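Entry:
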Amino acid sequence: MNWLTRVRNSLPFIAKRDTPDNLWVKCPSCNEMIFAKEYHENQKVCPRCDHHGRLSADERIAQILDEGYSVLPAPEVREDPLNFRDTKKYTDRLKQARAKNPRPDAFTVAQGQIEGHPAVVGVQDFGFMGGSMGMAVGTAFCVGAEHALRLGAPYVVVTAAGGARMQEGILSLMQMPKATVMTRRLKEAGLPYIVVLADPTTGGVTASYAMLGDIQIAEPGALIGFAGQRVIQDTIREKLPDGFQRAEYLKEHGMVDMVTHRHDLRATLAQIIDYLRPAEAA
């Protein structure tokens, strides 16, 4: 035993403390390490670069609705209509996704108020199989619209999706016209249908109910589009402009009405609802 070892063993060193792995969050945009408590209290917006992180369905509902809201039961659908299997069974993929999420699928509907204005809010959660649109998502969207029709309340939908759910084949694509019909019914009833485009909103969701709102709001920096940028670039054989398919570019070119910071979203929705609600409800 050398002298360094003897000295080290004789000193009253404090035992190494176990540090939780979730104390810090790395911003995916600026790569800065952020104290997790600060990040969550700031609604998952990076305090350094203002990058808007992805929210779960429950986080998003709590952010938009006043306290005292209620979550509607998830509709029951046939879970594996095609008995699909790739490297895993589709049923096994669903079980894995549900083990990591408190909700049974990617679309959750809640009823409540936005700064005192009654509203129905539907939220798509990218954390559940990439927010992919299958029968459960399409049915939940329609249930939310029907609930808004019964209440005579605005329908606010927050989208975040990678597209249709390939494990359900054409049945997933059929959710596009089904949801589109419901947006038409809301319009005929004179009820506001407001869409908040979160990062990312792509594929069949963009090609249907995500772009049919009376008002289109996007979060800063959100990726919004149908096909991927590389696919488009290879197809037209031209270099695409900087910021293509980002919220700010789409606003500049008339595809969305406004880009709203997450901290201002609830107040902005309340103002829009107050302006668009039917005269008899005013």
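The longest strand covers residues 193-201.
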